[in-house]
């Protein structure tokens, strides 16, 4: 294909795509997928919704209206996602942020650095101590204040959160942070926010104290069953993008991340770069399985990081430097160039003289006539 090729290296494979702007083709875009063209009357119902004391009944009523609305829109040719679920694009974005946060923190940490002072990947769960009495939107505001406190006081830079529902109907949050903070601090900060809506008062009336265990903090070394996590990135991505049947939907926004996390990207290698041939050699080695092939896009699935770290040392080192550069641990590479210094006793060289060219004399008429015949013949002047 006569278009520049780019490889994007991910933890679970490699994406290959071509820049079609170099090709003289006509692309028929689908405007129906645009956000402004997907708005329906149901969106206005959600915006005007005001919660009642029985919040779970409100959720069931809204879900019933949304299911009817999906049936109507499906007859018009539009398939809407279920209420409280992530779309395919949202899953891709959430997966990208989670992968890049983990890779950035892991590759940026020194081998013998202290996890308490530097960056360290932590998984936090926030819950409610009693039955939910407020809307999801009101609880999310508490979570926003909690995250702002972590950023301003404890220097949290990268984070991503996901809202889910428990079996009892209460909303809870999963957070991926880049900073180790003691679990008692997390509990204190989250309970402080819950106290604004009176959840600590209802808990105290039943248990006699105001310090409920509403947070769960753990590293990415072992799962819930105590088994060692071999691939933290895959574990977190599945945890953050999973869908559990039989639970009530979350109204409103389902996930979010920091602005710094949005700017993180996968390492990319374009055609013409020094390590581009290394990626081509990896693709041709058949160590990754091609699971998708289209005109301008392909995806090769497999344990790309495991293969690169063992077989392609230069490429692996460049990937780690890429994440360190994104995190600000190293400076961008610059081409070393010495400063030009003129010598004190410098005498410029004399410009070379151009030798004179001898011009031959123009031949006479008799000479031309002798060599080439009568020149009048060539000028059509013969009489």
TrEMBL record:
InterPro entries named among the record's database cross-references: ORF2/G2P_dom (IPR056906)
Region (Disordered): 205-225
Top-rank lineage group of the source organism: Bacteria
Record-annotated Replication-associated protein ORF2/G2P domain positions: 122-243
Name of the protein described by the UniProt record: Replication-associated protein ORF2/G2P domain-containing protein
Organism name: Tenacibaculum jejuense
